[in-house]
Design a protein that fits this description.
This protein is of the alpha+beta class. The chain has helices at about 40-55, 75-85, 105-110, 115-120, 135-150, 190-205, 215-235, 265-270, 275-285, 305-310, 320-330, 345-355, 380-390, 390-395; strands at about 5, 30-35, 60, 95, 125, 160-165, 180, 190, 250-260, 290-300, 360-365, 370-375, 400-410. The protein contains 14 helices and 13 strands. The protein has a six-stranded antiparallel sheet with strand order 6-9-10-13-11-12, sandwiched between helices. A five-stranded mixed sheet has the order 1-2-3-4-5. A two-stranded antiparallel ribbon has the order 7-8. Helix 2 links the parallel strand 3 and strand 4. The longest helix has 21 residues, at about 215-235. It starts with a strand and ends in a 7-residue tail after the last strand.
């Protein structure tokens, strides 16, 4: 759970301490501190978003140095929530467990998506004793972003996780893996065919050969088309506000990973988020082999969100039913808010691919979370929106900045193919 307390402080106690006190030497009044949990569940994230939306007080967040397992885009969801929280604060500050600028604590924090996002969306970064360590953390953060930005698609590091991050407000918005520089005056986003190549390289880096039998060229091509469509959307709508002015803070990116565990663990870690638990439960019924791997991909930005981009209105001016209708339009073929040709096909096509893959999709934007689950035959695309509309009052969530789209699908060894 997210731990919250109003405190007056001098130091950040060790993580294992129960009676924690937090100190902000620059403030004399009580402030609210939100302790981000190591297990970053979607339900905890929604509670955090609700708390910060309802609060009008100054607050800080305390970041864990390392995270435990998170499923269904939980880490990306908290990264989106941190951007949302930061825009509500006049001088956002975070607390860490970093001791005296110790690099052994800084590096693990900046290796996480949420740590990197927090580094560039806050004004002050505090150590475990309340000391200002902003300079050294940002220096290391810039080194980390440069390392990411200099990666080429054919040199993605092998492992079970990959991050590609743009920090646009620091003129670091054109990673080489996603943008072509060459002789162009400005770097241009690579085209659809190049994104299909990027998708192949991501799969090659993250998915071991014996698990790649489901990933046919057609599937990988579909992933590349989705990446292109959604990431192009972040470029169009994640950099500027509705008045076309540059956002003071803009982060965008891709977070991909492979999770392998027994199905009981997947069910346990998703137990407080019913859509994800129901999705994993389908595989327990279908498959006698309880050890499974899932490919997870999140694309995110901190812009204005789906409905404001579509309707050209701030979220406060949009009725929930109109917002839901606008989001739904984004999933219908040949519907687009862009004037250029070739748009409006990415989201419908990724849904087609997920149906074939028994996949799962979650979109979090504005005041809604839209989930499609296609395990065990799944539901029709319209069903998710019909259910939201029929329970509209219960479906309205606290607003978030930008958009986060996460897809999840199983990887099967050849011997496990159904």
């Amino acid at each position: 759970m997210i731990w919250v307390q109003n405190v007056e402080v001098e130091a950040l106690a060790p993580p294992e301490t129960c009676n924690r006190k937090f100190v902000q030497p620059l403030l004399r009044d009580f402030i609210t501190v939100y302790q981000i949990p190591k297990s970053m569940t979607i339900s905890d994230c929604e509670k955090f978003l609700r708390d910060i939306h309802e609060s009008t007080e100054l607050s800080q967040i305390a970041l864990p140095t390392r995270r435990k397992i998170s499923l269904g885009g939980g880490e990306a969801a908290f990264s989106q929530a941190i951007c949302t929280w930061a825009r509500k604060q006049p001088n956002p500050s975070v607390r860490t467990y970093i001791k005296d600028g110790d690099i052994s604590f800084i590096s693990p924090l900046l290796a996480t998506l949420y740590g990197l996002i927090a580094c560039f969306n806050t004004e002050i970064i505090l150590g475990s004793k309340g000391e200002d360590i902003s300079s050294i953390v940002r220096t290391k953060g810039l080194e980390r972003v440069k390392e990411i930005q200099n990666m080429k698609a054919n040199s993605f590091p092998k492992g079970n996780e990959l991050q590609i991050v743009c920090v646009d407000h620091l003129s670091m918005g054109n990673p080489e893996s996603l943008y072509a520089k060459g002789n162009f005056v400005e770097a241009r986003l690579r085209d659809r065919a190049e994104f299909q190549y990027i998708a192949r390289q991501i799969v090659k880096a993250l998915v071991v050969e014996e698990l790649s039998s489901e990933l046919t060229p057609e599937v990988v091509s579909g992933l590349g088309g989705m990446l292109y469509e959604i990431f192009r959307n972040t470029e169009d709508h994640g950099l500027r506000g509705l008045d076309k002015s540059r956002l003071m803070h803009s982060v965008r990116g891709i977070h991909a990973r492979v999770r392998t565990s027994d199905l009981e663990s997947f069910l346990r870690f998703s137990s407080d988020y019913t859509p994800l638990k129901d999705y994993f439960s389908q595989f327990k019924v279908q498959d006698s082999n309880h050890t499974r791997s899932f490919f997870e991909l999140s694309v995110f930005d901190s812009g204005v969100g789906f409905a404001p981009s579509w309707l050209k209105l701030p979220i406060e001016s949009i009725l929930p039913r109109a917002e839901l209708s606008a989001i739904r339009s984004c999933f219908e073929p040949n519907q687009t808010s862009k004037t250029r040709s070739g748009y409006g096909i990415g989201l419908p096509k990724v849904l087609e691919s997920l149906i074939q893959l028994s996949g799962f999709l979650r979109l979090r934007t504005g005041r809604f979370s839209v989930v499609f689950s296609f395990a065990g035959g799944g539901n029709k695309v319209a069903t998710a929106f019909d259910e939201l509309e029929s329970n509209l009052a219960e479906s309205i969530l606290s607003p978030v900045e930008g958009a986060l789209l996460t897809i999840l699908f199983p990887l099967r060894r050849s011997s496990n193919r159904r």
